[in-house]
Design brief:
Blueprint (H helix, E strand, L loop, with lengths): L4 E4 L14 H11 L3 E5 L4 H7 L13 E4 L5 E6 L2 E7 L4 H18 L13 E3 L4 E4 L7 H7 L4 H13 L3 E5 L4 E6 L4 H12 L6 E5 L17 E4 L3 H13 L1
Helix pairs in contact: 1-7, 3-5
């Protein structure tokens, strides 16, 4: 029996970093949405997640069954009355965002992890409304360079560990291949899971989370505190296998 709601991480779970779903993945998700509810939860902003996922789904997909939780669960969007609408959004104030940006810049200089004299593919720091994100190589860095920058995750961990005591009033979490995400305290993927389940009266024990980083220190690990059933995957190809098994079960 399919879970009543299945949460998916995005980068390295459903798609390559900041890349759209492949046609094969889009078809599988469409089949899943015909039979149950699906939520996408990731550090990206809403427009990015919509472009990567919702806009790639084939015509006729049941979008009423799809939920998008951008900025690490700090916001929730549902397809209501024929359009995407925000159910909630825990926004940072401009003053909070500026303070976080200044701290991120300080941490980059003090740790030396990011070479600020090197070329940046777009802005290194982006304010996403509910979140501030540091992308070490810039927001638009090529996938190959992002994957080569920190293959074992040690650089991100060093930045994360430096930032936590500098930003005690916020949640600091590792994001994608090269990113660090900062939100209000307590706002994370576990928060997003609880909020969506409360909004639609789902029982968390009847839902499921699928992600590539559920291991200790991974950016999906926090969801385990909700008691949700989890499934670790290696990459989008592995995710397609899991979805196939769910549909066949």
């Amino acid at each position: 029996m399919l879970p009543s709601l299945i949460f998916f991480d995005l980068d390295k779970t459903l798609a390559a970093s900041k890349q759209p779903l492949t046609p094969e993945m889009a078809q599988l998700l469409s089949k899943l949405l015909a039979r149950t509810n699906v939520a996408i939860i990731s550090g990206g902003k809403f427009s990015q997640l919509k472009e990567q996922v919702a806009d790639q789904l084939p015509e006729g997909t049941v979008l009423d069954h799809l939920f998008i939780l951008p900025t690490s669960g700090a916001a929730l969007y549902a397809f209501l009355e024929g359009r995407w609408q925000a159910v909630y959004e825990e926004r940072l104030t401009d003053a909070q965002a500026q303070s976080i940006c200044t701290t991120l810049e300080t941490a980059m200089r003090e740790t030396g992890i990011v070479d600020l004299a090197s070329h940046s593919y777009g802005d290194r720091i982006e304010f996403r409304g509910a979140e501030v994100t540091l992308s070490a190589l810039g927001q638009e860095a090529p996938i190959a360079e992002k994957e080569a920058w920190d293959p074992d995750g040690s650089k991100k961990r060093t930045l994360h560990d430096a930032l936590v005591p500098m930003l005690p009033e916020y949640d600091v979490k590792t994001g994608g291949s090269t990113s660090i995400d900062v939100t209000l305290k307590g706002i994370n993927k576990a928060y997003g899971i609880r909020k969506l389940c409360e909004y639609r009266s789902y029982i968390i024990a009847d839902t499921m989370y699928i992600g590539d980083a559920l291991y200790p220190g991974g950016n999906d690990e926090v969801v385990k505190e909700t008691g949700i059933r989890t499934q670790q995957v290696k990459d989008p190809e592995d995710t397609m296998r899991v979805i196939g098994e769910l549909l066949a079960g």
